[in-house]
Every structure is written in structure tokens, then in C-alpha cells.
Design goal:
Layout (H helix, E strand, L loop, with lengths): L4 E4 L2 E4 L2 E2 H8 L3 E5 H14 L5 E6 L6 H9 L3 E4 L2 H9 L7 E3 L6 H10 L3 E4 L2 H14 L3 E8 L21 E2 L3 H8 L5 E7 L10 H19 L6 E3 L17 H12 L5 E4 L3 H4 L3 E13 L2 E6 L8 H5 L5 E3 L8 E7 L8 E9 L6 E4 L20 E6 L2 E6 L4 H5 L4
Parallel strand pairs: 4-20, 5-6, 5-13, 6-7, 7-8, 8-9, 9-10, 9-11, 11-12, 12-13, 15-17
Antiparallel strand pairs: 1-2, 2-3, 4-14, 14-15, 14-19, 16-19, 17-18, 20-21
Helix pairs in contact: 2-9, 5-6, 8-9
The chain binds ligand LLP.
The site of ligand LLP has 18 residues, from helix 10.
Length: about 425
């Protein structure tokens, strides 16, 4: 599937469903995901890894909707989780716990026990104290845990500072310089086997070369660890491949990246695990919104829509760019340069700033593009806004994958 979101004769479609039909029937704001688009991206990874001892562990944090997880589980995907809540979702969606890897700097005792109980593939450990706790809990439960140390390979991914993770100054992982001593100190533990090496250097990488540089360093580390007698079996390289958000952005070629990676890993006897999130789901999703008002303050134009930072926080948090396009060609000629803002009481509540757009008028629908990753999952109820519905399109059919929240949902659990 070339592009699951496509304009045909002026009208925006998701696969074979007109997006305006969904906006009218499901209401706005609403997230819409293309099942075909997600499958196609997953299959690109699967095809690129064919014949290798490799696994794609989709990063649940990018989009954890059960319907999305279910369709990836059906493709045979494994999963990368960062919390007990994500593990619960994977199990509910029929994911295989034996293909789950668990990352994160702050795993709690309860989360570790839950993961041991279900029998996940491996923990990616981020500190020596965590390794010791896993050992103790596994011992008490009569289990043996498989683990890797999440290494900080000190490679600069050249991405946004908030989503760059592989440098020494970041809270993630353990510095590659000296990590062998961490393995040594854990050597005697009876209930945890350090049988992998793991890293994740950052997200939204439009150039794959830092990932390849990290892979090279990690393979060398695995070789050094084996020389010390550790039975290192797998290399988990994390996620990170980016997607084009702006018209001029390069699109990393998954196939070319995997061919280069194959060259580094094949022959080492290491199993390769990847944890892509964004590159599988981002482009298969849009956020639909309706224009509420137009207003101008002096020479500044505003287009007020019914979606906001509570539905999509990326512009407010990272200054991220998302294309905004009308669902139908505007009836009016010409363009306007405007801020697209939501109803939330924050100056930072914008979806776009100083953007040249068609003459959008109240009642018009727009799509915020490339919103399938880190969209709904990072939404909030700030300003007592119910979180939006999620819709899954598959071919000519579509269905509500998650209902819009109600006011009742917002007060559930309050005394
Ligand atoms: N593995 C680990 C250990 C991670 O921390 C992440 C993302 C991934 C895999 C998946 O990375 P991806 O393939 O999606 O780049 N909210 C931010 C992105 C945060 C990414 C956090 N970690 C955003 O909206 O851009």
C-alpha cells in the first residue's frame, strides 16, 4: 500500500473510506488508523529480515490501541513494553508473551513480578539495582529471568533533544564504557541470565547511519562479552527510524536500512531484535477535527478547531510539525496564513503556527496528518476534555476501535 491516506478527486480517503463519512458519523475530534497501512509497514520490516534469526518487537508506546495490537499480533509481531499496563494490553490483544521485551528505567516490583509470571522473552535492564531486584524476585518465584543490559552506546542520533536517549548525559541505559564490569558483577546471580545486549539511541531518525553505528558498537561489545565467557545470544537495537512529517522530509528506506544491518549482524550468531514504533504506525493515522471559528487579532489570523493539545501534544511539547489539510477542497479561493489552535486554556495549545492554509471556514473538516504514533496514547483529560474516539479502517470497512469518552468516564473513580 503506497499511501493509506490519499486524495481522490479532491476528497481525502483512508484506504477506500471517505474520511468525511467518519468525521460525520463518529464525530470529531477522532483518530483514524489504516489497518492496511500498518500491516504494510510491518511487512516491510518482516520482509527485510527474512531468513535472519530476527524479530520485530513493535513498541506499544507508539500506539497501544487493542485493535492495532491485535492486528500486529496476527502478523506475528513481538512487542516492546515499558510498563505493566502495556503488558496487560499485549496479553488482552492475544500477543505472545514469549516475544515481549520489557524496557524502562523505573520498573516496579509489581511490574517485574507480572512480567516474570507471564514469561516474557527478556528484560532490558537499565541499572544494577534493577538487575539485583529481578534476580531476587525471580528467585522467590522459582523462575529464571532472561535479561540484557540496556547500553548507552554514546552515539548522537541528531534528533530532537527530548527524544534523543543514547548519550551519556541521558537517564537511559548504562554507559558502554565500563558496562562489561556490570556484566561481571551480575555473573554470579542465580536467577537472572544476562544473555543479550540492548540499546535505543533515540527516535525520529531520518538518517539511519547513527543506528548502524550503534549496531556496530553493540556487536563489538557482544564479542568482548563472549570472550569473557558470557553466552550473549541476542542484540536488541531498539526503535528509532523516523517518518516524513514535513513535505520536504526524507523517508528512511526500511529495506536499505535492514540490508545494511544484515551486513553487520549476519555471521555473528546473534539474534536481532528491533523495536520500531513510529515507523510502523505514524503514517497510517490521522486526527480529524472540525473548524469551530475564524478570528483575527490585528494582523494575526486564528483557525480555532475542536482538537487541541489534549488530543495531540506533539506540536506543544516538541514544536513538532504535522501537515493540516482539508478533507475536501476549499470552496473559497486563495490561502490564509494562520495559527491552528484548540479550545484549551494554554498559549501553547496549537496544532500549527503561521501555517499557510486554504481558506478554511467554520464547519469544514481537517485532517492532522501523520498522527498514528504518539497521538492518542499521549492524550489527556486536561480542561475536562473527554479523550477522542479511535477508528480503524480496513479496506472498505471501518469500525470504532475505541469509543469517545463521556463525562461519566471523566468522573469514574472519584469520591
Ligand atoms: N524502544 C525504546 C526503548 C524506546 O524508548 C522507544 C521510544 C522505542 C523503542 C520506539 O521508538 P520509535 O521507533 O517509535 O522511534 N513521544 C515522542 C517519541 C518518544 C519515543 C520514546 N521511545 C514523539 O512524539 O516524538
Amino acid at each position: 500500500m503506497a499511501n493509506p491516506i490519499e486524495r481522490r478527486e479532491g476528497v481525502l480517503f483512508c484506504e477506500n473510506v471517505e474520511l468525511e463519512t467518519i468525521a460525520r458519523e463518529a464525530g470529531t475530534p477522532v483518530y483514524v488508523y489504516s489497518a492496511g497501512g500498518i500491516r504494510a509497514r510491518y511487512r516491510e520490516y518482516a520482509a527485510g529480515l527474512e531468513g535472519m534469526d530476527a524479530r520485530v518487537c513493535y513498541a506499544v508506546k507508539a500506539n497501544g490501541n487493542l485493535s492495532v495490537l491485535r492486528l500486529l499480533a496476527a502478523e506475528g509481531a513481538g512487542f516492546d513494553i515499558v510498563s505493566g499496563g502495556e503488558l496487560d494490553r499485549v496479553l488482552r490483544a492475544g500477543g505472545d508473551p514469549a516475544k515481549v521485551v520489557f524496557a524502562g528505567v523505573g520498573k516496579t516490583r509489581e511490574e517485574i513480578e507480572f512480567a516474570l509470571e507471564t514469561g516474557i522473552a527478556a528484560f532490558n535492564c537499565e541499572s544494577e539495582a534493577e538487575i539485583a531486584l529481578i534476580d531476587a524476585l525471580a528467585g522467590r518465584m522459582g523462575k529464571r529471568a532472561s535479561a540484557a543490559v540496556r547500553v548507552n552506546p554514546d552515539v548522537n542520533p541528531e534528533t530532537h533533544p527530548y527524544i534523543s536517549t543514547g548519550l551519556r548525559e541521558h537517564k537511559f541505559g548504562i554507559d558502554i564504557h565500563g558496562v562489561e564490569e556490570v556484566y561481571e558483577r551480575a555473573r554470579g546471580l542465580r536467577n537472572v541470565s544476562l544473555e543479550g545486549v540492548a540499546c535505543h539511541i533515540g527516535s525520529q531518525l531520518l538518517d539511519a547511519s547513527p543506528l548502524l553505528e550503534a549496531a556496530q558498537k553493540m556487536v563489538e561489545l557482544a564479542v568482548r562479552l563472549r570472550a569473557r565467557g558470557f553466552a550473549i545470544r541476542h542484540l536488541d537495537l531498539g526503535g528509532g527510524l523516523g517518518v516524513p512529517y514535513k513535505p520536504g522530509d526524507a523517508r528512511p528506506d526500511v529495506g536499505a536500512f535492514l540490508r545494511a544491518l544484515r551486513g553487520i549482524v549476519v555471521g555473528t550468531g546473534l539474534r536481532l531484535w528491533l523495536e520500531p514504533g513510529r515507523s510502523i504506525v505514524a503514517e497510517a493515522g490521522v486526527l480529524l477535527a472540525r473548524v469551530l471559528y475564524r478570528k483575527s487579532n490585528g494582523d494575526k489570523e486564528f483557525i480555532v478547531v475542536d482538537a487541541s493539545m489534549t488530543e495531540l501534544i506533539r506540536p506543544a511539547l516538541y514544536g513538532a510539525h504535522h501537515e493540516i489539510v482539508p478533507l475536501r477542497k476549499s470552496r473559497l479561493p486563495g490561502t490564509v496564513t494562520a495559527d491552528v489552535v484548540g479550545p484549551v486554556c494554554e498559549t501553547g495549545d496549537f496544532l500549527a503556527r503561521g501555517r499557510e492554509l486554504p481558506q478554511l471556514m467554520p464547519g469544514d473538516f481537517v485532517a492532522v496528518m501523520t498522527a498514528g504514533a504518539y497521538g492518542w496514547v499521549a492524550s489527556s483529560n486536561y480542561n475536562a476534555r473527554p479523550r477522542p474516539a479511535e477508528v480503524l479502517v480496513d479496506g472498505t470497512g471501518w469500525g470504532v476501535a475505541r469509543k469517545r469518552e463521556t463525562y461519566e468516564d471523566l468522573v469514574r473513580g472519584e469520591a
